[in-house]
Design goal:
Length: 178
């Protein structure tokens, strides 16, 4: 992989506290985020486990927890995880890498990932999607929210392979039929 994940981790370590303060309660300011997260919550029902990949300071995990969802969260940056654990002690956070997930195949019911791939190369985006789809249970849901995607053709073809198991948001929402 050409983009060094250590560089990304170091970058976020340098700004973790400021980031956590700046983006606290971010979903409260974004009605579309709230609408999409509520829809994800509804579609997930009581299926478990659900993970927030690339959680940063834990804002999305917190929002879903407040909607009544049992959720755990994972991030590459230990500094971001320290912020998340301080801000949201009732949520389980762990260090991890979306490109090389430490989960068994088909063990996760749902994944939400807000801005988790914005720093990735095309190759890394493809690897991340393959990993997410590897760990999703059959019929599992994947909700991606991002504003900048490198390698769009790679991840779109990955989505097409698992479209029945996927909830995706880029610039427009795409939901499986209810």
């Amino acid at each position: 992989m050409s983009r060094n994940l250590n560089h990304i981790e170091t970058m976020y370590a340098a700004i973790a506290e400021e980031w956590a303060v700046t983006f606290a309660g971010e979903h409260e300011k974004k009605p579309k985020d709230r609408e999409m997260l509520a829809r994800f919550r509804q579609l997930m029902g009581n299926r478990k486990p659900v993970w927030d990949f690339g959680c940063g300071p834990g804002n999305t995990a917190r929002y879903l927890k407040d909607l009544g969802m049992e959720i755990s969260a994972l991030d590459l940056s230990e500094a971001m995880l320290e912020q998340a654990r301080t801000l949201h002690p009732d949520i389980h956070f762990r260090k991890g890498d979306i490109i090389s997930l430490d989960f068994k195949d088909e063990t996760i019911a749902g994944v939400v990932a807000f801005y988790a791939i914005i720093h990735f190369t095309e190759e890394q985006v493809g690897a991340a999607f393959r990993e997410v789809f590897r760990v999703l249970k059959p019929g599992g849901l994947f909700f991606l929210h991002t504003t900048s995607v490198r390698g769009q053709s790679t991840w779109m073809s990955s989505l097409a392979e698992k479209s029945a198991s996927t909830l995706c948001f880029s610039t427009r929402p795409v939901f499986p039929e209810s």
